[in-house]
Write a structure and sequence with these properties.
The complex is a heterodimer.
Chain A (H helix, E strand, L loop, with lengths): L1 H13 L14 E9 L3 H9 L11 E9 L2 E8 L4 E10 L4 E9 L3 E12 L6 E11 L13 H25 L2
Antiparallel strand pairs in A: 1-7, 2-3, 3-4, 4-5, 5-6, 6-7
Chain B lengths: L1 H13 L4 H11 L5 H18 L1 H4 L3 E6 L4 E6 L4 E7 L4 E7 L4 E6 L4 E6 L4 E7 L4 E6 L5 E6 L4 E6 L5 E6 L4 E6 L5 E6 L4 E6 L4 E7 L4 E6 L5 E6 L4 E6 L5 E5 L4 E6 L5 E6 L4 E6 L4 E7 L4 E7 L4 E6 L4 E6 L4 E7 L11 E2 L6
Antiparallel strand pairs in B: 1-2, 1-28, 2-3, 4-5, 5-6, 6-7, 8-9, 9-10, 10-11, 12-13, 13-14, 14-15, 16-17, 17-18, 18-19, 20-21, 21-22, 22-23, 24-25, 25-26, 26-27
Helix pairs in contact in B: 1-3
Classes of the chains: A alpha+beta, B mainly beta.
Chain lengths: 178, 357
């Protein structure tokens, strides 16, 4: 948890590199994490699909502001260190219990990020499995040498940190609340 | 004819199927042969291959690059099963197949090289060093030239499949991605992702003849069987540009979110487009300029090729590490084949039998 906040803080202070729609390196990165939660899928899904309330389960998020722009739904996440992330909702699939979203802008050290979270029935009754998969690129889009903090490893570590903390937080929130 | 027979028997007995080797053999054994003589010998060589290896080469194969585990999965499209997994260079993306040469070429972005696979026994036989980041690959229909787009250095290189030494190179638009060659071998088309155009290259002079403005961030490219229709897949504005190469008329059509690659049906009536962020394939009716249907596939679909004999489209899913198979007659998902981590298969990846060629 400290690690991810430190990384977020670092990225916010060192760069205001916007998530532009221009070039990126040819190798996309994937982070794919799963967790088993001792709670009914419906209960877990209710938390996951609530796009305007991520602070209820992600420990790095203090506030979520939901906004509608025409047909599109956005949220601004405020992080513990004061940084913000603007995200766009892509779809909510009730049948598959799957939500898709993407990052519009952030100070995080990765770019072109899109992800989904899916909730499935667990192996045992009353259990759920949650899978969180993200696709993104490192920040630096040109030829090596790659500046420190803008490489594949930094991008991967940051997303790993967000997912690990988030899934642990989701487990805690779903298993504790009634 | 005695000489040809002699060479064929050498090939058969040693299972040496390298054209370079054969040409060298011919040069040493038959010095007085002209180029035409070599050409005739090459033709007879390919005939002998198809006849002696009919048991292993009658089925079509799909060569799927797996970026995350540095392998290529070989699918038998007759049974839709993976029959081989081959270790290649680091972070393989692009693919091109040469059925008469019995070769598959794989571009490895991170190891900056091209792996050469012998498709008769599915083993790695060569590695072509490229100083840059090779992404898109294409083989000329005569199989004499392999083209590779070097993303980092904004150039395209032409490699002789005979000597595997770089023969020519050309600076091109920003971030060249997909490439295709016209059926008559004369024209090479390249999508330049960051300059939003297709470069049209004369393969004889190796110069740019024309630039065609397309949508935003063209990545994948497809050419219909006759070469009449050319399509660029424009990632950022979720469109396809279809260009009539005879009249130069361009039509833009909307597809799904962040499309990546496309393939024409053999009859040139429909175009299949992978939508990476919708996990779907859009089937476009070209004449009526509308969407026929949208088919759900695996997660983050990228490369697509159609096997014209069984009318099945193969889609490499980067997110779910598998290949979706669509029946193009019914436009239904037939099956899903487990491949490897981060399947991409960027390029035309179906290897057809050589019989009849």
């Amino acid at each position: 948890m400290k690690k991810i906040l430190a990384l977020i803080a670092l990225s916010l202070t060192t760069s205001l590199v916007s998530v532009s729609a221009s070039a990126h390196g040819p190798t996309p990165i994937k982070v794919d994490k799963s967790i088993t939660i001792k709670a009914e899928p419906a209960k877990v899904w209710a938390l996951v699909k609530d796009f305007g309330n991520m602070q209820k389960w992600h420990p790095a998020v203090t506030n979520t502001k939901l906004e509608k722009k025409g047909e599109d739904t956005f949220r601004t996440l405020t992080l513990k260190d004061g940084g913000t992330i603007l995200e766009k909702l892509r779809s909510v699939d009730e049948a598959d219990m799957k939500i898709r979203y993407e990052i519009v802008s952030s100070g995080l050290p990765f770019t072109d990020y899109n992800a989904f979270i899916v909730v499935k029935k667990g192996a045992n009754a009353g259990e759920s499995t949650v899978q969180w998969v993200g696709r993104f690129y490192r920040l630096y889009k040109l030829n090596p040498p790659i500046p420190a903090g803008q490489d594949d490893e930094t991008a991967t570590n940051t997303v790993n940190g967000i997912y690990d903390a988030g899934l642990a937080g989701l487990k805690k929130a779903a298993e504790s609340s009634k | 004819m005695m000489q040809f027979f002699h060479i064929s028997s050498i090939i058969e007995s040693n299972h040496l199927l390298d054209t370079e080797l054969i040409l060298n053999l011919m040069k040493t054994k038959i010095n007085n042969f002209t180029k035409i003589g070599i050409f005739i010998a090459m033709s007879s060589f390919s005939l002998s291959i198809s006849s002696c290896s009919a048991d292993t080469n009658t089925h079509h194969r799909a060569y799927i690059t797996n970026q995350g585990e540095h392998t290529v999965s070989v699918i038998d499209t007759g049974t839709n099963k993976v029959i081989h997994t081959i270790n290649v260079g680091k972070a393989p993306v692009g693919i091109a197949v040469a059925s008469r040469l019995n070769r598959a070429y794989v571009s490895n972005v991170e190891s900056q090289d091209i792996s050469v696979i012998d498709t008769q026994n599915n083993t790695l036989v060569n590695r072509i060093k490229v100083n840059g980041a090779p992404v898109g690959l294409a083989i000329s229909p005569d199989e004499k030239t392999l083209y590779a787009a070097d993303w980092f250095n904004n150039r395209v290189i032409a490699i002789s499949t005979n000597s595997t030494h770089t023969v020519r190179e050309l600076s091109i638009g920003d971030a060249p991605a997909g490439l295709v060659v016209s059926p008559n071998n004369r024209t090479l088309y390249i999508t330049n992702r960051d300059s939003n155009d297709i470069a049209v290259i004369d393969t004889e002079t190796f110069t740019i003849k024309q630039r065609i403005k397309v949508g935003k961030h063209p990545f994948g490219i497809a050419l219909s069987k006759t070469g009449k229709l050319l399509a660029s897949v424009n990632v950022q504005d979720d469109t396809i540009s279809i260009i009539n190469t005879e009249s130069n008329v361009i039509e833009n059509m909307k597809v799904g979110y962040h499309p990546y690659c496309a393939a024409f049906s053999a009859d040139e009536k429909t175009l299949y487009v992978t939508n990476t962020q919708d996990d779907s394939v859009t089937v476009l009716d070209i004449a009526n300029k509308n969407t026929l249907t949208t088919i759900n596939v695996g997660s983050t679909p990228e490369g697509i090729s159609i096997d014209d004999t069984n009318h099945q489209a193969y889609i490499a899913n980067w997110g779910s590490n598998n290949v979706s198979v669509i029946d193009t007659k019914t436009n239904q998902l037939l099956t899903t084949i487990k491949t490897g981590e981060k399947s991409r298969a960027f390029g035309q990846f179906i290897l057809s039998p050589t019989i009849g060629n």
